[in-house]
Structures are given as C-alpha cells and as structure tokens.
Amino acid sequence: MKLVSGDGFLIKAGKDVQPVIDEFMLQPDEILVANGDAKFIFVKDGVEQVVNQPCPTCTVVTPEGIQSVDLDEKIAFNYEGMGNASFDSNNIDAIQSAILLGQDPTLLFEPTAAGNESAGNVGINGSSSAASFVSINYDNDSMLAEAGFDTAYDPNQARNELDPLVIVQPDGGESASLVVTEGDLGDKTYPVSSSTSVLVEASTLPLDPQSFVFDPLTVNALLTELSRDITSGGQAVTFIYDTQANAIIGTLDGKQVMSIALEATSINGRDVTVTVTTTINQPIDHTGNNTDSYVVHNGDQINIDVAIQAQDSSGNSLEKPVNVDIGVIDGANPEFGTDKGTYIDEATETGKTISGDVPLDLGSDAIASIRFNGEQAGLSSITSDGKPTSFSINSESNELTILNSDNEPVMVVTMAKDGSYTVTLTGVIDQDTNDLTTINLDVTATDKDGDTANGQVNIFVKDGADAAGGEVVSVTLTEGDRDVDGSGTSTGGADTTYPVVKTGELTLVAGEDRLDPNTVAIDASQQAALIKELNTELISGGQPLTFTIDANGNLIGTIVGTDTVAVRVELTPKQDGQNVNVEIKIIQELPLDHNASGNSDGFVTVNGNDISIKVPVQAQDVEGDALDNAANIDITIVDGANPEFGTDKGVVINESTDADKIINGQIPLDVGSDDIAHIHFNAEQSGLANMLK
C-alpha cells in the first residue's frame, strides 16, 4: 500500500498504534484507519484500488482483496494519542467483523462519556483529545452510555454501508486544434511548424507520460488515408508511425514532407500536458474534395483528425482518446510581376533568340505549368507585311507562334516554368508610326495544387532599316517615222511608226519590311516641279503641251487645249517578294520638238538631239515608311530620222505650148520623224548663176 496524502494509522492487537508513512504492507491481522480526505493506493496481485473518502475510513485486507467502510464523520484519529491507545484481540476481531459485514464500526471506537457530558471532545483512554488517540466530536445533544469498546458488537445496529472502492478509469476526451500555413518557395520559408497543447487530467491514478501515443485503434487507418490523400507536386506521400520518435512522418523520394510529433510531460506527477507539433517541410497539394474519416480536403485547407491514447500508472487506458484537429492551410498563390519588356531590333536581331523574364513569385507550391492563353487580345492588330496575322499554340501550351498570311512563322515565343521566356523573330512584324510595335501575350501560371496567376509577356519590336531607294533605270526611245513610204506626207496607218513604245523595269529593293506596290507613284514631293518643267520645255509640232498625272499615277502630256496625247509614261508595279518591280512603258504618240532649250538642269533637258526626262519615283513599305531616297527613271527620247529629199526626176516645160501654165513636179521627200514645218528656197541659188536674161 501507499499513502498518497492525509493521515493513516495501523492498529494491531497488543501493539502500539503506528503512523503510516509512504509505502507499507497491510497484514491480515492489522487494521488501517484513516482520517477524512486521506488517499491510499492498494495494490494486490497487480490490481490497484484507491481509497479517497471525505470521511474517516477503516480498512482490512482479505483473501479476496481490500475491504473498506466509512466511519462516522465525528470521529478523528490523533498522532498525539498514539502512545496512550491499546487494542486487544477482541477489539481487533470486533472491528474486522464489522468491516467484513460492511457495517460501520464507529461505535466500537467510542469511549464512555460518564462524568464528561459537557465535554466537546472525548477520547479513548483519556479525558480529552489531547491525550486520546480516538476523539469524537459531540454536539451535546446526545451522550454515550457505554464505556470502552463493545466487544459484543451488534451487527444489527444502524451503520453506513460502502461498496469496496475501485479504480476509476481516466476520462480522456479532451480536444485541441492547430493550424499550420504552408511556407513560401520564393521566400524560402520552409519548413514551417505549429504546435498546440492540451492538459489531460488524471482520474484515480496518475497518468503515465510515457504511455501517450497515437491511438493504436485508429493510427493504421489514419496512415492509410494520409498516404492515399496527401500528395506533394502530384506525387503520393508515404506516411509511417515512427514509435521511437513518437511521430507520424510523411516522406517522398526519401525526403521528409511533413510530420506530426507527440510530446507528453507532467508537472504535478498526475496530469499530463500533451503537445502536438505539425511541421511542413515541402509543399502539400490542396486538391481533391475527399471527405474521409481522418483526412478531409476542403478547398485551401486539409483537416487531419488525430486521436491520442494513454494509460494511467496501472495501465488503465483513457475512456475516450484525446482528439487533435490539424488544419494544413494552403500558402500564398503564385503571383506574376510586371515584365519590363524584351526589345528586338528587326535590323540586327532577326533570326536570333532573345531572352526575357516575367517576374514570378512561386508562393507556397511549385509551378506545374505556365501556359499561353487561348485568347490573345494583344495580337488582334498585329500585321506582317501589311496583312493580318494569326497564331498557334503547341500541345503543351508553352510555345506560341505568330504566323503571317501565308501561314509562315514570323515570331516564336517559348515560356519556361520559372517565368523566363525566349523570343525568336523569324519574319516581318509591322510597326506603328513610332517605328515600334508592342506585343502583349497573356499567360497563366498554375501551381501543383491548382492555384493560378495571370501574367503578361511584353515584347517590343523595333523597326528595321527602311528601303534605301535611289535606284536608277534608263529607258531610251527613238522617235518614229512619220513618212515610211517617203511620199513627203504622213498618211497614217502603215505610213507611220507612231506611236512608239518603249518599256523598261525598275526594281525597288525593300528594307526590313515589304514594300507595298500600291504606294508606288511619281514622287509627290517633286511632282509640281517636274510638271512645271515639262510644260515649259516640251512642245510637239510647235504646239505647247500640258502634263498631268492621272488617277492611275501615269504621266500624260497632251496638246494644249485638246485631248490629243503626245506622250505618256505608265508605271505598273508588281510585288516581287519583299521588293517591288515597276514596269515602265513610254508611249510617244506624236513627235516632240528637239529644239535646244539651253537648260541642262532640273528634270527636263533638250539639247537638240535628245530630250532627257528624269522621273522621280517613291514608294512605301507596309508600315508606311517611304524610301530613304526616291528612285529615278531616266527617259531619253532621241530625235528620229531627219527629212530627206530624193532625186527629182524633173519636169519638161515647152515654152511654146506651156507658157503661162502651172506645171507640177515632185522632189521625192522622206519626212522623217517630225512633220515638215516648211520648205523654202535657199537665198543662194548657184544653179541660176549662168542663166541668160
């Protein structure tokens, strides 16, 4: 037996009363008496019983175990009177018999009250409690009529009956909760931990701190659910119960992912404080919607229900396990920053791979993918060579290709999972008036438990070199013949080679961007000066010409005041890859007068034999950028054949018969390229020098 608290005494026939100190052996011939609120633990054959009553008790040991009864609360046992008390075998037998019958032996301890009716306390073998081992607190309303001990104990007198005392099983059933929020991969805050503590109160016997474990009845089912429902980066985490560490540990590829550790301590030797610590070492996926018994996914929180069991010092388990509800909360979602932009110079970086980066805060979980969105509003107005573009995304959604109207790639952008990307410009991207095109591509990052973030890739394409221009092509035309048959007059039809047509070709070489054939025209900035000179310096058959540019961009020269066309220059542009080929056609309908103007500057020069016309040509690329320098078509119209007389066969005049008659003759005359302005007799006539008067 062991005295836990209070006062207890051993009574044995013929022996002095002995106080109980700590542990002792209660013999069959002994009686244990104890004051109220004393607490004893009895151990017999490994079974513990506790006596802890608010009133005095009297206890004996039997072959069946411990038997104890309550005494009247008025009685008290005193250390001071131990030496004055004595009990014979009759006293002991009477008290033991009462106890075995479950009856109150209080009266057996009462001394005579004769001569002491007024006393408040009466003790055995003494007149006061100061010298008595047993004292009885009287209220002066009743007196004892007997003296000493009643060895003829009457089992029928009134007494309290008490069932044998048993050990009460510890209740348990306490509960606690804790939450732990995942760390941040970007800030490198893993591992993270959170703890909670709960006080588990003892019952009859003290609790054993070493016995606190995860409930053996549920731990295997808990481990099964954890291994089935907890994943990290999409891979299953394997959980075990490490009994040495008293911790549930989850690992993946040999590395710890999370743990639930249990620690139990006692300050007062009876009650136990249980501390549960949950540590997250790596991201845990918050996916699924399972509602199992012990592991429940609920959006951004995983709840884990852990049961803890323990025993008291005699091995009695908690009636109900202690429950700890653990909440594992999803940490920060991934978040994109602002891409400062990647600049590509068409002139120097076409065909090169350029790297860029969209800042990305990973948050609590690793990134599963970064994908280009299926809708790309930023590409709606992007053109290539002046034509709309389209785009395609690969099966993994991490590569976007911009395609021109011929379905050819002009730009390829590839995303990595860390937010970095590469750009390769393979074709032409048209720029705005600022020679810069901004391409914004929408992307979505998804972490491994399904959280998303929206970001944007910013790419700036700087216009490359514009077309240099300055090309020059020369076209020479020789005037036709007005009088093919040499009849001296032009009758038209087969008798003339007008109109004379001459063609040529001017190739305008593109810069970085395709030249637009629809923009080819006589340079607008020089048109007025060109036309002024043409109107001033060119005439046909002595008649002035008026030059205009028609709706098709052709240069037309007509006789003033008429619709008669003397000469026209037609330009027909055609696309040739990035370049433009301009077909030139010069059509001379009427002869032009090659009268020297004395002007050798500007756009038009007439030197007597040749008429030179410089026609400036301008064009724009698909972005509206003009040639750096206008191209030039140098037209030379060479004077045709001069008029030429043949040999006159002569006429015969008979003076006698032909006098005063008009006789016709004809000198053969080839008019040449121009109409005859006049034929006159020379002032000097050597053939008449010898004529007689």
Supply database-style keywords:
five-stranded antiparallel beta sheet, rod-shaped, mainly beta, 693 residues, 6% helix, 49 strands, Immunoglobulin-like, six-stranded antiparallel beta sheet, 4 domains
Structure description:
It is built from five helices and 49 strands. The model is unreliable at 112-130 and 140-165 (pLDDT under 50). Helix content is 6%, strand content 40%. The longest helix has 12 residues, at 89-100. With 693 residues, it is mainly beta. The protein is rod-shaped and about 215 Å long. The chain folds into four domains: 2-137, no CATH class; 175-329, no CATH class; 336-462, Immunoglobulin-like (Sandwich), CATH 2.60.40; 472-638, no CATH class. The strands form 13 sheets. A six-stranded antiparallel beta sheet has the order 38-44-43-42-41-40. The chain has a five-stranded antiparallel beta sheet with strand order 3-2-4-7-8, covered by helices on one side.
The span between the termini is 191 Å
- The total domain count is 4
Calculate the mean pLDDT score and round it.
Answer: 84
What's the total count of β strands?
49
User: If you compute it from the alpha carbons, what radius of gyration comes out, rounded to the nearest whole angstrom?
Assistant: 63 Å
* Rough outline: rod-shaped
Main sheet makeup: 6 strands, antiparallel
Question: How does the helix and strand content classify structurally?
Answer: mainly beta
Query: Helical element count?
Result: 5
Strands of the biggest beta sheet: in what spatial order? 38-44-43-42-41-40
What is the percentage of strand-forming residues?
Answer: 35-45%
Helix content: under 10%
Low-confidence stretches: 112-130, 140-165
